[in-house]
């Protein structure tokens, strides 16, 4: 299979359903912060040749290579440009499931890289600051709408964009667009057909600004929950899903109208650090257990998928909410980019090494991307069903 670095842009796999596509992995090192500089922490990470990173540990020195390595001087624009996110957007427009997830310990720069400095705060900054400091998600949204404008000139069929935004905290799913609508959200589906969150609020959007507003509101809701509930944001997984649908003509022998259903998913994972046992009492114990559970299962799935012997066996996707929702992204039919975020500080050596080892394993995971289509009739029926259910719920209120 061709997994070379020639960007796949506008060049989907030749033979859909058989061509393998390796999970791409990039790493970004954030600068030392003032707290670290004050206690004269030093930097032990060095990036070389744009794709390798060396950890000068207390005892050993270790080198890792990835698809790209971004050092402390990298700008948001450079990370967007060389991360492969554009390819994810292009493929999602073409009907694939594209996923980008950020992994790393709390404070390593996941939210900074995905959204921008301060998460929700960036939306309150002036326009010049926003343009310069926006993270991958707003940049990808901007690129998505650019591409859609160009493509809808080429094809005559319009695109429909639906968006949902949720958070998994303590193995419970919360709606970040419509928080009051959050009770008992359950995952439905199967590994074969894909998993989804039932009753999650979804909204059609038509412009980039509408989508950015939803992102801002979602980030604010996330920050608010974190303020009320003891910093949940470092312990929750936030998942933004942008569904991109387009009606296409069926093939000759199949006159039925089809809808192509691509999806672009961004996940800002919970902090990967081990939760200290001293914090784990009573309610906190169940919380940390469950939170560890999602990340633990993610780790187990990544290890199994990256091992050619275990890959053939059972992958425990079903053991956590996070891994069910990421099943297509890891060893499934999607296209995936992992961003490993790390602190350069010597005091973070163990956590950084642990992140780099995870990332190193994820590199070996192979997906077999396929375009998702469904008959237009099915799509319409499903939407009608959802509308009916929402109406019923409103009656109950
Ligand atoms: P996480 O989401 O992984 O917990 P954050 O993204 O909130 O971490 O980053 C922690 C702090 O470090 C924030 O103040 C953030 O703005 C800053 N930071 C992270 N990455 C960078 C970077 N590449 N350049 C400058 N500051 C950064
Ligand atoms: Mg964060």
From TrEMBL:
It comes from the Eukaryota. GO terms for cellular component: microtubule; microtubule associated complex. The keyword Transferase does not apply. Transmembrane segments: none annotated. One of its GO terms (molecular function) is ATP binding. ATP binds at residues 104-111. Its main location: cytoplasm. Residues 22-365 form the Kinesin motor domain. GO terms for biological process: microtubule-based movement; mitotic spindle organization; spindle elongation. Residues 373-397 form a coiled coil. It is found in: Cytoplasm, Cytoskeleton. Keywords: ATP-binding, Coiled coil, Cytoplasm, Cytoskeleton, Microtubule, Motor protein, Nucleotide-binding. Belongs to the TRAFAC class myosin-kinesin ATPase superfamily. Kinesin family. This is Kinesin-like protein. It comes from Rotaria magnacalcarata. The lineage of its organism: Eukaryota, Metazoa, Spiralia, Gnathifera, Rotifera.
């Amino acid at each position: 299979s061709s997994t070379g670095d020639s960007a796949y842009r506008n060049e989907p796999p030749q033979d859909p359903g058989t061509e393998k596509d390796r999970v791409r992995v990039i790493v970004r090192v954030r600068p030392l912060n003032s707290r670290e500089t004050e206690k004269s922490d030093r930097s032990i990470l060095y990036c070389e040749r744009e794709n390798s990173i060396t950890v000068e540990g207390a005892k050993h020195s270790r080198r890792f290579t990835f698809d790209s390595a971004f050092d402390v001087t990298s700008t948001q624009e450079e990370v967007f440009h060389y991360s492969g996110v554009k390819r994810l957007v292009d493929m999602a427009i073409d009907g694939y499931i594209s996923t980008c997830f950020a992994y790393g310990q709390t404070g390593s720069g996941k939210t900074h890289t995905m959204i921008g400095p301060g998460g929700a705060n960036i939306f309150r900054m002036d326009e010049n600051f926003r343009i310069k400091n926006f993270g991958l998600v707003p940049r990808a949204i901007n690129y998505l709408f650019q591409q859609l404008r160009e493509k809808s000139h080429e094809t005559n069929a319009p695109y429909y964009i639906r968006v949902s935004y949720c958070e998994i905290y303590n193995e419970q799913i919360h709606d970040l667009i419509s928080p009051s609508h959050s009770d008992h959200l359950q995952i439905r589906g199967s590994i074969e057909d894909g998993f989804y969150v039932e009753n999650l609020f979804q909204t059609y959007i038509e412009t980039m600004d509408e989508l950015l507003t939803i992102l801002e509101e979602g980030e604010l809701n996330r920050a608010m929950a974190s303020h009320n509930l003891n910093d949940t944001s470092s312990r929750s997984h936030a998942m933004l899903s942008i569904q991109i649908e387009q009606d296409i003509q069926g093939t000759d022998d199949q006159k039925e109208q089809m809808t192509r259903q691509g999806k672009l998913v961004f996940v800002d994972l919970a902090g990967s650090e081990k939760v200290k046992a001293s914090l784990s009492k009573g309610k906190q114990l169940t919380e940390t257990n469950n939170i560890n559970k999602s990340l633990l299962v993610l780790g187990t799935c990544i290890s199994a998928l990256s091992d050619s012997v275990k890959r053939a066996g059972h992958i425990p996707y079903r053991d956590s909410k996070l891994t069910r929702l990421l099943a297509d992204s890891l060893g499934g039919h999607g296209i995936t980019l992992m961003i490993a975020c790390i602190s350069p500080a010597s005091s973070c050596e163990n956590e950084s090494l642990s992140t780099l080892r995870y990332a190193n394993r994820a590199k070996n995971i192979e997906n077999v991307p396929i375009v998702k289509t469904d008959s237009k009739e099915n799509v319409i029926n499903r939407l009608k069903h959802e509308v009916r259910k929402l109406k019923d719920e409103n009656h109950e209120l």
